[in-house]
Amino acid sequence: MDLTDIRREYTKGGLRRDNLPSEPLVLFNQWLQQAVDANLPDPTAMTIATVNADGQPFQRIVLLKDLDNKGFVFYTNLSSRKAEHLHINNKISLHFPWHMLERQVHVTGYVEQLSTLDVMKYFSSRPKESQIAAWASKQSSRLSARQALEGKFLELKQKFSAGEVPLPSFWGGYRVKFESIEFWQGGEHRLHDRFIYLRRKNNDWDIERLAP
């Protein structure tokens, strides 16, 4: 297989400065709704990047669970590798890869941990099996075999069969306070359109076009 021959043209449309709203979330919400309407698989999936104490970047995919002017929200095990990184360095980046629409969005910012009340509201809305899975998995820890994880899940499923599943003390969430949002729209001949919104100190936004 020759990887140098794998390419395609991007022809679904451009992005022009005159069409950009003054607030980045207006455009982000439009693009997200269009991704949902296009029946893209996992339209809320985002890659999040963190950095460990040695400066080594790590990436993984999580699901966006809420969004407003205060930030992008996701949930995780607070003992996970990503949570350990964010405890040391709360800076983060997000990436939304909507390939079928020839679009990408890149977000940079920092995280704030969500309140127990906010976490409880979301945790209680999850399917019971997902709640039990949160208890069963010590995320990012080493496993001897998959059977160990499945066995723990079945044990906890029996334990919680007759009642509600309590919120684990080690499970929580983060709000990403965004400082920049970049929008990428594919263009013909690799002449892609890229615009970045940069937050000013007064919380207004500067908008700049970037070379592809």
From TrEMBL:
Function according to Swiss-Prot or TrEMBL: Catalyzes the oxidation of either pyridoxine 5'-phosphate (PNP) or pyridoxamine 5'-phosphate (PMP) into pyridoxal 5'-phosphate (PLP).
The protein's annotated pathway: Cofactor metabolism; pyridoxal 5'-phosphate salvage; pyridoxal 5'-phosphate from pyridoxamine 5'-phosphate: step 1/1; Cofactor metabolism; pyridoxal 5'-phosphate salvage; pyridoxal 5'-phosphate from pyridoxine 5'-phosphate: step 1/1
The record's free-text note on cofactor binding: Binds 1 FMN per subunit.
Catalytic activity reported: pyridoxamine 5'-phosphate + O2 + H2O = pyridoxal 5'-phosphate + H2O2 + NH4(+); pyridoxine 5'-phosphate + O2 = pyridoxal 5'-phosphate + H2O2
GO molecular function: FMN binding; pyridoxamine phosphate oxidase activity
One Pfam assignment: PNPOx_N
Co-factor requirement: FMN
Protein name: Pyridoxine/pyridoxamine 5'-phosphate oxidase
Class of the enzyme per the UniProt entry, highest EC level: oxidoreductase
Keywords, ordered alphabetically: Flavoprotein, FMN, Oxidoreductase, Pyridoxine biosynthesis
EC number: 1.4.3.5
Source organism of this protein record: Photobacterium toruni
Biological process, per Gene Ontology: pyridoxine biosynthetic process
Gene3D superfamilies membership: Electron Transport, Fmn-binding Protein, Chain A
Binding site for FMN: 60-65, 75-76, 81-82, 104, 139-140, 184, 194
PROSITE patterns linked: PYRIDOX_OXIDASE
Family: Belongs to the pyridoxamine 5'-phosphate oxidase family.
Binding residue positions for substrate: R7, R8, E9, Y10, K65, Y122, R126, S130, R190, L191, H192
Domain Pyridoxamine 5'-phosphate oxidase N-terminal residue range list: 33-158
Domain named Pyridoxine 5'-phosphate oxidase dimerisation C-terminal: residues: 171-212
The keyword Flavoprotein belongs to this UniProt entry's keyword annotation: yes
Known partners and oligomeric status: Homodimer.
